[in-house]
From TrEMBL, chains A, B, C, D, E, F:
InterPro entries (alphabetical): Epimerase_deHydtase (IPR001509), NAD(P)-bd_dom_sf (IPR036291)
Source organism, top-level taxon: Bacteria
Pfam families: Epimerase
Ranges for domain NAD-dependent epimerase/dehydratase: 14-181
Protein name: NAD(P)-dependent oxidoreductase
Family the entry assigns: Belongs to the NAD(P)-dependent epimerase/dehydratase family.
Keyword check for Isomerase: no
Keyword field contains Glycoprotein: no
Keywords carried by this UniProt record: NAD, Oxidoreductase
Amino acid sequence: MPAAATPLRFSRLLMTGAAGGLGRELRGRLKAYCDTLRLSDITDLGTAAAGEELRPARLEDREAMLALLEGVDAVVHLGGVSTEQPFDLILQANIVGTYNLYEAARKQGVKRIVFASSNHVTGFYRQDEVIDANAPLRPDGHYGISKAYGENLSRYYWDRFGIETVCLRIGSSFPEPKDRRMLATWMSYDDLERLVMASLTAPVVGHSIVYGMSDNATSWWDNTLARHIGYRPQDSSDTFRAAVEARHPTLDPSDPAVIYQGGAFTRTGPFE
Amino acid sequence: MPAAATPLRFSRLLMTGAAGGLGRELRGRLKAYCDTLRLSDITDLGTAAAGEELRPARLEDREAMLALLEGVDAVVHLGGVSTEQPFDLILQANIVGTYNLYEAARKQGVKRIVFASSNHVTGFYRQDEVIDANAPLRPDGHYGISKAYGENLSRYYWDRFGIETVCLRIGSSFPEPKDRRMLATWMSYDDLERLVMASLTAPVVGHSIVYGMSDNATSWWDNTLARHIGYRPQDSSDTFRAAVEARHPTLDPSDPAVIYQGGAFTRTGPFE
Amino acid sequence: MPAAATPLRFSRLLMTGAAGGLGRELRGRLKAYCDTLRLSDITDLGTAAAGEELRPARLEDREAMLALLEGVDAVVHLGGVSTEQPFDLILQANIVGTYNLYEAARKQGVKRIVFASSNHVTGFYRQDEVIDANAPLRPDGHYGISKAYGENLSRYYWDRFGIETVCLRIGSSFPEPKDRRMLATWMSYDDLERLVMASLTAPVVGHSIVYGMSDNATSWWDNTLARHIGYRPQDSSDTFRAAVEARHPTLDPSDPAVIYQGGAFTRTGPFE
Amino acid sequence: MPAAATPLRFSRLLMTGAAGGLGRELRGRLKAYCDTLRLSDITDLGTAAAGEELRPARLEDREAMLALLEGVDAVVHLGGVSTEQPFDLILQANIVGTYNLYEAARKQGVKRIVFASSNHVTGFYRQDEVIDANAPLRPDGHYGISKAYGENLSRYYWDRFGIETVCLRIGSSFPEPKDRRMLATWMSYDDLERLVMASLTAPVVGHSIVYGMSDNATSWWDNTLARHIGYRPQDSSDTFRAAVEARHPTLDPSDPAVIYQGGAFTRTGPFE
Amino acid sequence: MPAAATPLRFSRLLMTGAAGGLGRELRGRLKAYCDTLRLSDITDLGTAAAGEELRPARLEDREAMLALLEGVDAVVHLGGVSTEQPFDLILQANIVGTYNLYEAARKQGVKRIVFASSNHVTGFYRQDEVIDANAPLRPDGHYGISKAYGENLSRYYWDRFGIETVCLRIGSSFPEPKDRRMLATWMSYDDLERLVMASLTAPVVGHSIVYGMSDNATSWWDNTLARHIGYRPQDSSDTFRAAVEARHPTLDPSDPAVIYQGGAFTRTGPFE
Amino acid sequence: MPAAATPLRFSRLLMTGAAGGLGRELRGRLKAYCDTLRLSDITDLGTAAAGEELRPARLEDREAMLALLEGVDAVVHLGGVSTEQPFDLILQANIVGTYNLYEAARKQGVKRIVFASSNHVTGFYRQDEVIDANAPLRPDGHYGISKAYGENLSRYYWDRFGIETVCLRIGSSFPEPKDRRMLATWMSYDDLERLVMASLTAPVVGHSIVYGMSDNATSWWDNTLARHIGYRPQDSSDTFRAAVEARHPTLDPSDPAVIYQGGAFTRTGPFE
């Protein structure tokens, strides 16, 4: 059971992967909800703005991670490999790294983590299937398998140690949807912020799983089971539909990237 | 099978518990849908307005209840104890009283009842679970158990005698949400009126169960199974979210009132 | 697996039943999405507008159907009997006719069909039940059984031959809802167009089933399983609710047309 | 609702398809449960034994069917095409014929029918899936589609006219299992008799669906939903397993007959 | 959470309803599992055998019940009304009485109760339906409603106070099945003993529900959810089937006692 | 899709973990089903018997694994850490090792693997819950998480590369059940052999999950979904029940090892 209160405003919030695509976008936004925003990544984080702490660290460095989590109220864990890559890269960043993060949270008494999982944990469902968070996993590559590892790991840290996690199975968070698949998977940055903050501040989350998407007409994912999070998307890929369809008027129906929810991930690799 | 037609406008509508919080609110509203509004309670009902009939009665008085139901088209049953109280009070008002009401309905030929059940029939589900009307009951006290009794009783009067009931598992109907929990459970008075009237006038309801809540972003209850009622909430606790959160910026995660859907009911009593 | 690309704009689109109620309504609308709109029916189709091809044909005429499907990108199959009728009529138009259509599609290499099924495949569910596309069928007459035949047939052509179908379980598509039942079942013509076009252009549909209804407050059908189609209704029977209810203030609760989702179909026939 | 009592011993029982494989086997067995066993087929039925009535009739002959059902307590309907055949054969025997049978039952007041459906209504499920009677249908050919037609038709005759049916989704009823697939699908003749008699004599069946199989270790079908029938198989394909496996030590895993539950039916046809 | 160990052999076991049909049968059997068997009823309990304590008490007498539970390891609660009776009798014995029992257990620190619920909590399901413990309740009378009350009450005492209960939805426990319905519902006395002892001694039961029946071929209830109890019936109504069927060769299919699982209970009463 | 036939008798079968508890037991048994039994472990394998090939190899040695899988028809993968251990041990043997095994299978064209998963992937379900293979995972430690990794990995190799896997969620395979928990989880060695051989020889398995247990009266796991495997246990913990219970007459109900399915694993570690 959790022993520390979850506040609406945090004293110190940690975001990993702060130099990545989503991290750069959230960096300016999350500052509004905390006194100190601690930022970590393995690449350059630039200059600290007011209220920011820059803490470069490798996820696979256990001691560095232990130090990183010290004095932190909650974590937004975006760090790690975010595409299909050779196994050894994923192993270190996403498996060893996520283990290190949760062990550090346990030792430092951090009680809530928002974990950037991925829709690729269920990427081998077809695009004409609609699933929810209870559907058995069907990862579409070693990246998806590593995110499934993180979901299972965080479930354990909840059942055993009372550390709460919201797993965000993020679809495609970009300025706008780039292709026909993203008409289903797209999440605007504003909706991403809404989802992260709802996950950080909902009174009780235990171990929850929510798909990260905007209010798109086309969807493969049913978030009914996560209504307790209070996430209500305000944007929609529908705004961009006509333009996207005009750029991609036809699709190859024999292409796994068209058939499966995971898109091109389902035909990436193997690398050796 | 029901043998009497359900009209859109009622000749005589009975509302019990008319002097209670919800009763006082609905009193002025329901008059618009009927020629005569019969009102009953054990406490003072004030003066009868045009088209009102005031009929004080104790729910546990079988004869009084039989008389109360005479000549009535339909019933909105709000009467009884509405919080966790010592068993004997609940026994008389909510168990004996509800039995008396349904027996009177059977004898007087009343064919539809809107029964104010409560979310406390499932109050021991966690606040990070989302359930629907088919979830096994987990009442959070003797009050919730008595409402479960009423749900089962009314199911029997439908299966055996063709008396239709809509069970409203009301969340928290107040002028505005008072605390963080009510961001999930709140139902505005306007939405309450919408829900009661939809329940009274839907062509066929058999034995239906619907959670009574507004269109809140945070929710623990899925009303998909009750779409045939035609209830579409127009209000939302989201309007009040910022103010409520400002007043209650932190919560104690070890408090059952924070963990379970039933809130403080889950730690009220026992009284001896 | 499908072998031909599904475009957003079609070279030649075939619509059967083009002289029927929905056909006449869609005729002008579908032209915008294709170079050539081929129209077929057994009754008079009037004069061909620019870009139209008129091809009268009987569904039960196997050779005529084979010719009809030649050179077609996709089919909107509205043809056949659309109400409860004597068995022999339904047999020829809806069973033999649908078989002929799918055989022709197989031989001509047509890869996607939008099939006008009907809510009458589940018409013997009660009006106080909410179902989805996985609910076992309960047809309400020989018409409903013939539509169930078409759904099963099209499932086979997908599993065996890779021909995709979206089965539209159309509720009541009329200019406006005519009675209390249609407050649940109504679909505006604009929403019908949206649904047909979403079904024709969704990247992958395999064999999908979707109920055809507008965004009505009262509903018996849950389209969650079909969100991948991307159909988002814009209209609602709620606009007409007050007028409809005023015209039909009471209903006979012992009438099967009031009790069951299929309405009056559930008490039509038998014809001998 | 049914209006005639279902006895344990019948005055007159009708079995169609009496000259087919299962019919010949059941002919001698069913006589023990009735005073008169009426037998029908389109091919030679031989000489009538004591208590037998021979009534050759074509299923597609409506008048003949009406006469055939006269004075009958219950029907075991085995007649019709029982393998994948050209559509027109299946249409007449299995679609028109089954319609004729149920119409005759309605007119003659027959209240219970045991309908020989087939596992081929779900033949396109994979052999590594376990399904029950609520799984959406996936027929593996026009034969399977025609049996699905019969299941839907009989559901209607129950919902509308109170005629009860047990649909037997028969696997493979032969003296012994012939191949690896039949280790899952086999039903002994003794078990077939048990299943038919349980279906005829269970007090209430409404519209029930049960898979016809012996107590085989390997199985794809879960009959939990049909336990009210009281069918308890006594035989098992396991007795024959070693011999069958010895004769078929390897299988081609790319063969649809190995992959899908329908076996070779899934690759039979099309015939033109 | 429970705080007292559940032993395999009890120091003192309490059985209420000890003078009733099942109580008399279990009296001799339960003695083998405890040092002292405390027996209670409102009617004469005869003479105490070695190791027996006789404690007449009325269930509705709160003080008597408190005394009755003192020093007890576990309870087998068979007491109360066991057939459909006028409401006031059921109210006192089954509602007030069960409340008194659980309050006494709470105050006396008793941690496990085996509660004789009844199949009549789901008696309005049809005899051609198979249900499990998660099916929504459909009681068939005030008796069934009172047992549903006990199930909900005991769920609360588990969720709130950590008192474990196994609810036994007993079918028909008699020396042998008396009629066709009991071919489905029968439980031998030996199986009753097995079920009670498994419920008393299973390491962890929380709040469990199990249908009480022997290994009958015909069944309406699926106990899969209760396999953790370890109840394995050894008897079967099948032994008596031929004799029972011979005595009752026909049934009236319009009789609710034939249609519904609750049998004659579904048409007993109302008493005024 | 698999491209190689699965035989009943193998030319060369590989068993990893051959020096472990289950490996030593299966070594003598599997030889009967193959011409050559290749055995691997990191500890001493003794002397090769006729038809045996001894191939010591470390699972984390990618090249060694590639060589190990050469010329193999199928694999029984028992290797790796089989209890809760420090993370780094589990990481190498169970995560890197299982990855290496599947990559080697892919490169060497091996088409079926029997993977020794564990009940500890769902060890945080309570002992009064009954689950099946579709229940969301709740691992009880890093060992369980690593087995969940293997299940997800093997799902991917099926979806992407057509390599079939049966995941055996083995309970407790020992000569006899040692404690009360094992009355539910025990699997005899004979049943283990039956399960492994059924998994190796079933015609089609795709990606299947089956709990490994004997026919125990007490059970927490429902294998209905895996009936296609054809595993029918012949032994039961019931034989040992009296002796086990006599040795462990009481249990501490506050011990996680008593409450949760994972037993003592749920309170092992953390190791730092």
